[in-house]
Amino acid sequence: MLPIFTYHAIGEHPSPVSTPVSVFEQHLNALAKAGYSAVTVADALAFLRGEKIPASKPILITFDDGYESVYTRAWDRLRDYGFTATIFLITDRVGGDNRWLGQHESIPPSPLLTWTQIEHMAAQGADFAAHTRTHPPLTLLSPARAESEIVESAYTVRERTGCDACLFCYPYGAADATIRAIAAQHFDGAVGTRLGTASRRDDPFMLPRLDSYYLSPPILAHLEFPTTQVYWNVRDLLRRVKRLIQPDFDASLPYNR
Fold first, then answer.
1. CB 139 within 8 A of CB 47
2. From CA 155, how far away is CA 152, in angstroms rounded?
């Protein structure tokens, strides 16, 4: 079992993608008390392949989109607990903000990490990986355009940070067979938005994660309990139903231009 946690921004803005600092602290404290150890992407993927036995209970902490608050509010707190993290970057937006095409109106404008901040964190052990160049729903793009978004993002991450960038993150979790096949040509694994705890039985190019929105100290203290797995299955089903009614992105926008 490998819990992979999903965060976005850390702050007090009332937003579906923002975790309050106090709540983030509660999560870290609960994980530390439960004896979990945050691992790198390389170690996480090796564990899922059955190639590596972790010294302690492994977790992978991830942040999508590369919000500046990861540097200003999360990184030092993670280090205080001896945790590392992986940040998925939208490489064309680095140094800018989160107002990309298709961003939901409920998400307030927020700054993203700069390359200086990214390089500083990388020097201190943070891991960085690719989340495309511009954050489009890849399933709406031509295969050539989708591959360009994926490959160029990974190249930039590797060049600027020195990280292997061997794990990819699909924007909006959108990945059909074509997109997964492209990812498999360039990475060792990929994550989306399916809720659940990753295991060796999962498709390595559709690994589930645990969204911070649904976390609490009691849940974090009992991640290995069968009843907790049932909780994630129910949450995932409810979220899938909600997305049928209210999709995560507007398919009518010109993403393919």
1. no
2. 5
**Which of 100, 107, 111, 102 lies closest to 153, judged by CA?**
100
Q: Are 34 and 221 in contact (CB under 8 A)?
A: yes
Q: For 13-41, how does the pLDDT look when each residue is reduced to its tens digit (9 = 90+)?
A: 767 889 999 999 999 999 999 999 999 99
Q: Give all domains of the chain, ordered by start, each with its CATH number.
A: 4-245 (3.20.20.370)
pLDDT of residue 119: 97
- C-alpha to C-alpha distance for 146 and 124, rounded to whole angstroms: 32
Q: Is 105 left (phi over 0), alpha (psi -120 to 50) or beta?
A: alpha
Please state, in angstroms and as integers, the Cα–Cα distance from residue 26 to each residue in 11, 93, 221, following that order.
14, 30, 11
pLDDT value for 55: 67
Contact present, 164 and 41 (Cβ < 8 Å): yes
Check residue 50 and report its DSSP letter. Answer: T
Quote the CA–CA distance of 250 and 145 in Å, as a whole number: 18
What is the pTM (predicted TM-score) of this model? Answer: 0.95
State the Cα torsion 117-118-120-121 to the nearest 10°: 120
Strands (E), the chain: 4-7, 9-10, 18-19, 36-38, 57-65, 86-89, 127-130, 167-169, 189-195, 207-211
Residue type, 200: R
Q: Provide the CA 139 distance to its chain's centre, in angstroms.
A: 18
Q: CA-to-CA distance for 202 and 205, rounded, in angstroms?
A: 8
